[in-house]
Amino acid sequence: MKVTNEDIEALRSVIVVLDGIVLKSQIHSVVSKAVSDRNRLTKLKSKLLIEFTKREFPEKKPNESNKSGH
Question: What is the pTM assigned to this prediction?
Fold first, then answer.
């Protein structure tokens, strides 16, 4: 299954919503679990952003940047 940029953006949006839910949690017994979940969501969001950036803005190969003469 191929993951598209739309899939990555949808996942990122869901993570933002879940992060908001975790922040609003006021039940003491689930706070440590919520913090752990929030940390995992933050790491996943970061990985998704990196993957999205790679796809949207692929790095130029070193010899391509020299072709412009700058």
Answer: 0.43
